[in-house]
Amino acid sequence: MEIDLKDPKVQAYINQYIDQRIIGASRQLYDSLTKQIRAVDEKVQQVDKKAAKNRVAIIASKGTLDMAYPPLLLATTARSMGIESSIFFTLYGVEILKKNARLKVAPLANPAMPMPVPNLIGAMPGMTAMASMMMKGMFKKQSVPPIRELMDMARESGVKLVCCQMTVDVLGVKKKNLIDGIEFGGLATFIEYGMGSTINLFV
To answer: What CATH number does the domain located at 53-202 have?
Structure first.
């Protein structure tokens, strides 16, 4: 049986067949390109997650008055510059997070005090309170907010405050005695955050 290629019906069938093949090939090409684009996009996102961001990660490990200022001042300064920041409170640093924290600085064996105090005198009753009062007065004279106000400023400015869960468990610290607006996390929490930070500090 011979096929008349000039027959309008045959030509219409051939054209329809060619169109279907072209459409099918186009769809395959489109699907292939879409998959490749998605794969590249996923890799870019993975790299972006691992890449260091313009943010500051600070560990606060001490609970004395003099060592409570650095992490809070650094974190709030970073936020004022538009830089993301986080403080991870661990070990004695958790003292800073307590609602009724009465942070002190001891003059005993502390040669860096503005007015060096001999150990014999520094060990006398009342000297720690005096040294703490003196330091508070020095900061107040320079218009530096007290620790509690700095903590409020940190929270309001968006500083991420993370309390070490291990420290809470080991030292038996009750969460109800800690200030509001903080998070709880393990060591992996800080490491993950620190890996993506441009500045990491241990205080």
So the answer is: 3.40.1260.10
